[in-house]
Amino acid sequence: MSMIQTGKVDLSSTNPVETVGGRTTTFTRVTFPTPFPAGSEVVVLPLTQTFNGPQTPGIRIHDVNPQGFLIRLNEVLVNNAVKSDGTHTTETIGWLATTV
What we know:
Elements: E1 4-13, E2 28-31, E3 42-48, E4 59-65, E5 68-73, E6 88-99
Antiparallel strand pairs: 1-6, 2-5, 3-6, 4-5
């Protein structure tokens, strides 16, 4: 039987773009309202709910487990495909987590 939870988090980025896999010091921990059962395989689907900054914010997810996940904005490209400095204003990110 599948289990689904939803939520939202307000995120901003004052840090450079994170380009090293596994480096999560600039991520925010989201804890599920109710932990999924131990051993569950959980999938998180994030989606930007607002349009507060002129550039498109990338969303990075890491360390998804039955208790929660890590998330951050990772604005990568701006006009003319120039690498961004990584900063981005606050956006609301909605998420849906489910077992598979």
